[in-house]
Design a protein that fits this description.
Elements (H helix, E strand, L loop, with lengths): L6 H17 L2 H10 L5 H9 L18 H13 L5 H16 L2 H12 L5 E4 L15 E5 L2 E9 L9 E7 L10 E7 L5 E7 L5 E13 L3 E2 L5 H13 L4 H17 L12 H29 L7 H24 L17 H12 L6 H12 L5
Length: about 375
């Protein structure tokens, strides 16, 4: 495996870094932090205008027809910069599914707008009583002529209060086994009967609990066959399970190194002179390196036409648990000052340590808990029984 970037990918990375440096101003950062909403229309459309939104997509959709490595560069740089891109990421993910299994009418209606920043799509999988068992969904979609009537609720529909559509998993055949009676829909969120209520997470992010009360949509909004929703959903879960969170570790390490080099003890010496500080920084650096290698292996496999069925969860579970360990380690290293928040002028590194500590805990839950990831690794990677 050769993980060195090709010259085109390096040029793409440099252009992306320069753009992020220009647009992610302190004012933008504060607005995102205060709102808890990881999306900004102007930022998303700025990526589109610079050709930085979806490099792997065909040029007719505004992409560069590049390979998986430029897509990986995009993910890494946006994550490292803590850019407000979560709604853009879910939009790209669902657009990829529509491109693969959507009807021609839906592709014509959605893809161009999704790729130019005019259409946004949130995810509607988890339910209040189901947790990580997505297939246990009880939100119902009942056929009524050419329409479907949807009733139920979804939890953690992040950005559901501002998105144009939600990619919704609903039960269409209650009498069938739970994995076989599900269907996927793309639900316009301007319909009657939809409501989003704010839920605030430990990291300060706004997510939502959403309600569907006799929401009526036509059958043209169905994605895939009736009762084949689990297969459609699998396309998105595979992408989510192969996520890597190493760039957040790299961001934490950057701020920790900066603190260690610029802070001064009463005797005038920097913390970096202490053995314990260097040992902690080295440990974080090693786990960051492993996290990035695991993620790059998934990209390499994709380029080789392989599916990282177990390797993706390995990347996800290791990188998120490493981030949580690293955040705790750095907070202990910095001491009580590390828990000063973004809004306190005396906070080291503008409160990055305190926020990353809170943020890191949720990453072990996003896109499937660590327990779910280990189950996939055991069953599909190692062939162990249920």
């Amino acid at each position: 495996m050769d993980f060195r970037l090709a010259p085109d990918a390096e040029a793409f990375r440099d252009a992306l870094r320069a753009h992020l440096q220009d647009v992610l101003t302190p004012e933008v950062e504060e607005r995102i932090y205060r709102s808890g909403v990881a999306h900004d229309d102007d930022f998303a459309k700025g990526l589109v205008e610079k050709g930085l939104f979806a490099p792997g997509w065909p040029s007719e959709y505004g992409g560069r027809s590049s390979g998986a490595w430029e897509d990986q560069v995009l993910k890494e740089e946006l994550m490292r910069a803590d850019a407000p891109v979560y709604l853009s990421e879910t939009t790209r993910m669902v657009a990829s599914i529509i491109r693969e299994v959507g009807t021609p009418v839906m592709r014509d209606r959605i893809l161009a707008g999704a790729m130019n920043g005019d259409i946004t799509i949130a995810l509607g999988f988890t339910e209040p009583e189901c947790g990580s068992d997505v297939a246990a969904a009880t939100t119902k979609a009942v056929r009524d002529g050419d329409d479907w009537v949807i009733n139920g609720s979804k939890m953690f529909t992040t950005n559901g209060h501002i998105a144009d559509y939600v990619f919704l998993l609903a039960r269409t055949s209650p009498e069938k086994p739970k994995h076989q009676g599900l269907t996927m829909f793309l639900v316009p969120l301007d319909v009657d009967g939809f409501e989003a209520q704010a839920v605030w997470t430990l990291s300060g992010e706004r997510t939502n609990i959403t309600f569907y009360s006799d929401v009526r949509i036509s059958d043209e909004w169905r994605i895939g066959d009736v009762d084949a929703g689990w297969q459609v959903l699998g396309l998105s879960l595979q992408d989510e399970h192969a996520s890597g969170w190493g760039p957040h570790i790299a961001r934490l390490l950057h701020h920790a190194e900066q603190w260690a080099q610029t802070t001064r003890a009463p005797d005038g010496s920097p913390p970096i002179n202490k053995d314990d500080v260097r040992r902690r920084l080295a440990r974080v650096a090693m786990e960051n390196e492993v996290s990035m290698l695991l993620q790059h292996r998934c990209v390499w496999m994709t380029e080789e036409g392989q599916i990282p069925v177990a390797e993706g969860p390995m990347s996800k579970v290791f990188s998120t648990e490493s981030l949580a360990r690293a955040a705790q380690d750095i907070v202990e290293m910095v001491g009580p000052d590390a828990v000063r928040s973004y809004f306190e002028p005396t906070a080291p590194e503008q409160g990055r340590f305190e926020h990353l500590m809170r943020f890191s805990l949720g990453t072990t839950i996003y896109a499937g808990t660590s327990e779910v990831q280990r189950t996939i690794i055991a069953q599909r990677g190692l062939g162990l029984p249920r």
